[in-house]
Amino acid sequence: MNNTTNTNYTNFYQVKTKHKGLLAWLLTTDHKRIGIMYLISILSFFLVGLTFAFLMRLEMLTPGPTIVDAQTYNSFFTLHGMIMVFLFIIPGIPAVFGNFFLPLQIGAEDVAFPRLNLFSYHLYLTGAFLALYSLIFQTHIDTGWTFYVPYSLRTGTDVTLPLMAAFILGFSSILTGLNFVTTCHRMRVKGMKMFEMPLFTWALYSTAWIQVVATPIIGITIVLVLLERSFGFGIFDPTIGGDPVLYQHLFWIYSHPAVYIMAIPAFGVISDIIATFSRKSVFGYKVMAYSTIAIAFIGYVVWAHHMFTSGMSDTARTVFSFLTFFVAIPTGVKVFNWVATLWRGTIVLSSPMLMALSAIFLFSIGGLTGLHLGSISTDIHLHDTYFVIAHFHYVIIGGILSMFIAAMHFWFPKMFGKMHNEKVAKIGVVLYFIGANVLYFPMFIMGYMGMPRRYFDYLPEFQIYHVISTVGSWILIASILLMFTNLLIAIFKGKPVGSNPWGAKTLEWTMPSPPPLLNFIETPVPSHDPYDYHGHDERNFEDVKYIENKENDIINQENS
Ligand code: HEM
Ligand SMILES: [Cu+2]
To answer: 3-559 adopts what CATH topology?
Structure first.
């Protein structure tokens, strides 16, 4: 393999379009640039959400007011939850790494609808700025990220702008989903079958269907809340004949499938990383692809497990409890097949691999404690306590944010043509693992003892757990900032690398780093095993003269 440096051809950073400077980015239709723009935007909002997380944990160091009053604390968890869910983790892996790598993994020159893709990003930015405007200039929303009625109909804080922001962000998600479904069906290189796409691509495909089918429901629900607030139609408000439980059904009919919009892409990243650093193809590839689809499907029919204390009938609760246990089967298949892939593999403990291994462990704790909440008898005791907070943060921090960070480290050399300091990255991963457990495990105990969520005050017997948890939040946040800083430094000072520093075997690693503007100058030859691409194409990209001429032709066409 000839690891040429990346100076011999036009990579997508160097493209000369009719626009200059910032406009060359904001008006680009290149999927790689759109991926990078999402990365910058999403990480900026993640840091805002993280700041609220830090402040919340600081407040919880002592009973009663520590740094803020109760009303401000209500806004902290609402803004933290809203920003983290709608501006970070739902767009998350698909918007950044899906945009950058989906076409590269299937041998395509771009997504099916490049201009629509740019429009989706502009919608994301519009929604984000609406949320930011409300954050800076309006009285901070205090309803919780679930915007439950009737309180969200009555609160004097600003609900309208955050709801409109969520509505617009929903459209960005739907259009991205539409783009990715069509891209997987229509843009695969000639001869590549659906069951020859890597599992990350399968994960994006399944997620895209949830984005398209589930997101409109939260859109409608938000419109109904805004109409009810303005005109009092009596849809949700019980004092005028409305039904607040109807709102909960509509909200969770979207928001439970939405947790799979968050989780499934992370599963795809785990599969590609485990295969790369076990030096093996994924065990049970086809079953893994089917289990991704199965999780997406079953995820539609479990939503009411969030409402076991809402007064539902026993029959309905039993059905939803059973279906919730059912979704554990395809999820268990994934964990089993990841471990089976490791079995007798040649394990390389790189930072992405270390994070993937920690994710399998932490996510399993999150998943298994989901069964405590899925069984009616224990859920009645644990609902709305810190046990729930611990459960979904073990899933989110343990299995999803961790994989967003692992994806940043794994694909960094491909995106930027440079390598980061792996030693610092590994220290970051270990601190992340320790911080996450010290922060969230005490919350399981507090929840079992009855500590309610969303309370800014508590009884003295909970203080020791809150103190430990807050110290954990400092370790976790420090680890995240360490890893981000390490990568930021590497963008400017990292050691240049060739096309495949990890020795990975999916298609994107056969091309130069960063990739050429046009992606594939030579049409790649599809491989039956998506994790066995090294034999084929690599040499084509060394034909620099040919690449440059071809590119200049196209750039001139574009500028003419
Ligand atoms: C990394 C550091 C983080 C820390 C220290 C943290 C801490 C917390 C705490 C303490 C609460 C409970 C507040 C309460 O009920 O009193 C909370 C709620 C929440 N967190 Fe996090 N969190 C973090 C990251 C995240 C991420 C990455 C996400 C999602 C992507 C997230 C989503 C949520 C949501 C949805 C809530 C519920 C908010 C509500 O009750 O309305 N968190 N977080
Ligand atoms: Cu759920």
So the answer is: Cytochrome C Oxidase; Chain A (1.20.210)
